[in-house]
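[09:14] KT: can someone run the structure on this one? pasting the chain below
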Amino acid sequence: GDHVALWMTNRPEWLQVFYAVGKIGACIVPLNTRYRSDDLAYTIIDSQAEVLVVIDRSGPVDYAHLLAGARNKIDAAGHLRHVVMLSESEPATNEGCVSWTDFLAGADGINDTALADQAAAVDPDDLLMLVYTSGTTGNPKGVMHSHLPLRNVRERALLLGHTRNDLHLNYLPLFHIYALSEISLMAVWTGGCQVLYDAFDADLVLDDVEGL
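[09:31] RB: done, structure tokens below
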């Protein structure tokens, strides 16, 4: 039932957190990587997220700095309890944040039986995702998704004829529902292969397509 906000660009860790959160019955809150401090504070507070998993930097964007600019508002709301920061300079991290290395090390203290019991207790009607709209004409609105739409993804995969022989080039942002449902989840459902891009690079995508 805990809400876990995820603020990072396309990386394998994004998907690892997504599946882990869903498996234990928590709710993932994907955050737009174009957010700035005010947007971040608003969605963290509105979603009542207890945990934030964030990357420290991607290219010129300093997410650690943007987070620091939002902390006063977020901390005043009193919901956020833990911040996990993935840094290219692991294990170094910001004050008040848990490094990705230490976060993973915490798994050593988790009992496999207890984990299996928690996964077995997840109800398909439970909240899996709280996805925020763009907020173009006002504040972003949280859209609730249970586990049940996973069946719709599988149905669309069958209708589209996707198989394990397909290769999906995913340069769309994972915080957007299309990249997650129609590419990442569809590849898993069908056994296909997904090539995950950190950000859109036309030359890189074209090189990969030509190499197929």
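[09:33] KT: thanks! The longest helix spans residues 63-77.
[09:34] RB: yep, looked fine to me
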